[in-house]
Amino acid sequence: MDYITTVLVKNGLIVAFLVTGLLMIAAEYLSKILTNKKIPGSAIAIFSGLVLAYFAGVATGGSKGIADIKVLSGFEVMGGAMFRDFAIVSTAMGVSFGIIKKTGLAGVVSLLVGVILSFFAGAVIAIAMGYQDAASITTIGAGACTFVVGPVTGTAVGAGSDVIAISIAAGVVKSILVTIGTPLIARFIGLNTPQAAMIYGGLMGTTSGTAAGLAATDPKLVPYGAMTATFYTGLGCLLCPSALFLLVRMFY
Amino acid sequence: MLIRGVALLAACYITGQLIGETLGRLLQINANVGGVGFAMLLLILSQNWLEQHGRFHPEMEEGVLFWSKMYLPVIVAMSATQNAKLALSSGLVALLAGIVPVVVCLATMPLISKLNPKSE
């Protein structure tokens, strides 16, 4: 039986194509019979992905979801940053350049507001939970931006590894919340135009969360949201360990 | 022809990533600044340019469209590789620091939307 495992591991990426396909067929089916298509199959597929990742994490003790299961290791490539970014870029084909230019200012403002507000909300929580040193407060605030900004900032300002772990976790919580929450709240915040998607991407920032959330809401909005969200992590890595850290240090 | 579309996409992707990394280095931060965003802009602009010069073949578009249709499956695969256990088991600070900022930022969305010039 060992040779079966070997074949599956050797062809990891293809196995990932197959399993993802089956998962999406099942999600489409569930969407039809359980929710009468009210909840889109794509949203169910993304959510089931998260649930599977959770159980795989519990079972294997690893950090890469179902990619930690040997025969499913191809998911690391298919769900990794390279494929994700390549596919996101491809969605730009046919995007209206006019809309991007028109929404440019609002997009930039949403980026600044998104980073700074997330940072302070995170920092206030850190203070409320008893953190007293500037490095820890800054790092947790940065984690509230994205799970990349947290560790980058933490390393730069010299925070402890436990605090850095918390900042990564905060970023992952955010990304998952945005993934699940976006299709649920889209109706209430008017998230149905390319302009709104650009602002939303700037405010939320987490590229993975925004892209997955918008995909489950309306795939046409994905390129616009991703366009601004992709600048968020860079801006966060720029502001958090510098200006925002100095600001926190004035008080702590 | 199909491969020309894929190659165009790949060229935009690599160039965008390089711009993002270079920008990150110039700003002395250890991160890619907008690599994906630059790649998307390059793709939009080069598509426009090729169309204006009559060099854009429909089959080229198919090479790119394949990937944009693969986008959702890739996202599903991505969510299946998230560290979901860490997110659920990491304690109150991480949970609150992940949830509260999202809610606070959402509250500002109507305000920022007003910056948009009214159109249509």
Topology:
The complex is a heterodimer of chains A (252) and B (120).
Chain A: H1 2-10, H2 12-35, H3 41-60, H4 75-78, H5 81-90, H6 97-102, H7 104-128, H8 134-143, H9 149-157, H10 161-185, H11 194-204, H12 207-217, H13 222-251
Chain B: H1 2-26, H2 35-52, H3 58-69, H4 71-80, H5 84-89, H6 91-107, H7 109-113
Helix pairs in contact in B: 1-2, 1-3
Largest sheet of chain A: none
Structure classification of chain B: mainly alpha
N-end to C-end Cα span of chain B: 37 Å
Total of helices of chain A: 13
Structural summary, described in words:
- The complex is a heterodimer of chains A (252) and B (120).
- With 252 residues, chain A is mostly helical.
- Chain A has two domains: 2-80, no CATH class; 97-251, no CATH class.
- Chain A is built from 13 helices and no strands.
- The termini of chain A are far apart.
- In chain B, helix 1 crosses helix 3 (58-69).
- With 120 residues, chain B is mainly alpha-helical.
- Chain B has a domain at 2-82.
Short key terms for the protein model shown above:
heterodimer, A: mainly alpha, B: 120 residues, mainly alpha, 7 helices, extended
Question: What does this entry show, briefly?
Answer:
Chain A has 252 residues and is mainly α. In chain A, 77% of the residues lie in helices and 0% in strands.
